[in-house]
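This entry is listed as follows:

___
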Amino acid sequence: MLRGVDCVSLPTTVHANILTGVWQNAAQWKRRTRRPWAMLCVELEYIGFVPSRPPDFLSVTPMIPTGSPLVEALKFYTEQMGFSVQWTAEHGAGIARGAVAFNLVENSNREWIENTSLSIGVSNLEMLYNEYRDTAAKVGPLEMKAWGRREFHMIVPSGVCLQF
């Protein structure tokens, strides 16, 4: 019935009316509401209507163990790595720098920490390397790898490995 409609947001009464048959089809909804097609679909998705297009992955936000009290980890990531705090809770916080975001989790489980490794794409790799060389992290050399990628690794104070 609604194939080809590109969806965005619509009043809550409309989705109920469409699903209960008050509106015979999407064209009738469009004529009576005079709203853009884009508004119909997001609202229908919100109430569980299965759209004709597959879902897209929009982002990923890794959970990173702090290895120490949250306040110490936040100090390192903000003061030494240039992240900003997006939100905080009792045992966690969200941080971001540019388009990259992490959720810090207050946890000192060594197995989790020592098995957490993230590869982060950046612009101006050499400038970032110079910025991070003097941090409290263990920063490896900036070098060309055998697989043709120029990169460096750093082990942050908790023990998590970050690759740039």
Remarks:
- The chain is about 30% helix and 20% strand.
- The beta strands are 63-65, 84-89, 92-97, 100-105, 117-119, 138-139, 143-144, 150-151, 153-155, 161-163.
- Residues 1-12 have pLDDT under 50 and may be disordered.
- The longest helix spans residues 70-80.
